[in-house]
TrEMBL record:
Similarity comment text for this entry: Belongs to the ABC transporter superfamily. Lipid exporter (TC 3.A.1.106) family.
InterPro entries: AAA+_ATPase, ABC1_TM_dom, ABC1_TM_sf, ABC_transporter-like_ATP-bd, ABC_transporter-like_CS, P-loop_NTPase, Type_1_exporter
Alphabetical UniProt keywords: ATP-binding, Cell membrane, Membrane, Nucleotide-binding, Transmembrane, Transmembrane helix, Transport
Main location: membrane
Organism: Phytohabitans suffuscus
Protein name, entry field: ABC transporter domain-containing protein
Amino acid sequence: MHGHTEIGVLAAFLLYLRRFFEPMQELSQFYNALQSATAALEKLAGVLDEKPAVPEPSTAVALPAGGGALSFSSVAFHYRSDQPILPALDLDIPAGQTVALVGATGAGKSTIAKLVARFYDPVEGTVTLDGTDLRDVADADLRRAVVMVTQENHLFSGSVADNIRFGRPTATDEEVADAARAIGAHAFIDALPHGYDTDVHRRGGRLSAGQRQLVAFARAFLADPTVLILDEATSSLDVPSERLVQHALRTILRQRTALVIAHRLSTVEIADRVLVLEAGRIVEDGPPTTLIAGGGRYADLHRQWRDSLV
Ligand SMILES: Nc1ncnc2c1ncn2[C@@H]1O[C@H](COP(=O)(O)OP(=O)(O)OP(=O)(O)O)[C@@H](O)[C@H]1O
């Protein structure tokens, strides 16, 4: 993460310069150079944000194609030794399963997700993907196999197409549009002032929260990872956007393993399995309907969510 703050400051400064020169389009060459420099730095800052601080394996093991089975075996984890976060987690997720992680703030949902994306290594125990310890997988292979979509979505300055193509830099315009179509984002993108060439501006300032989410989903769809991790946005969407996002979610969860840090009832309802976490331990584990019938913690949470919708 070294240098991240400095890069952020530099990006902000360039952005300021760019705004200043924006009205003077006759200086267009300089302005264009400034624009690309800002976009590149922002991208770098975004990537560094998510860049894991873990060592590359000395001899990398190739991941088998397809699959997506995840396994936590006696995983203990802490950020600081005086504050254990996961005491000893055992968890098997078969390939293709959609798992919703629920639980109070600080329960460890994001930590589990970050261990799967190998932002951190376990202090004890192992996390495996299709039987391979994540510590033995080359960084580039892991980035392709496991994609995390966060609340921030990390849209950078540049066109909508560039933002989607970030999922697979070699994708053609047609493949970018196909991904947007599959996700249900094509219609709104097409209606933007410059369609796919519309600049989303810094952090997607011009797009609504729902639209940003759809662009991030289209990017992940194009990347086509074996494992998708989704940290669902907490901010509520209006009803039409919510419908679009839920539809996109069903598409993107299909045919891959998914871990969803869920904040919406409608999302948990489409999961195959719910894990309820408390202080780093799984206290309930099962299909949503079974847990509701069981009358435990998820049943309480489900009731609260349902009541808040009425
Ligand atoms: N980078 C970090 N350094 C130190 N402690 C951290 C770090 N990230 C998280 N924690 C702590 O780890 C615990 C678990 O956090 P985590 O983010 O996994 O919980 P969560 O269930 O995802 O919560 P939320 O719903 O608020 O996102 C919390 O006590 C949190 O303060």
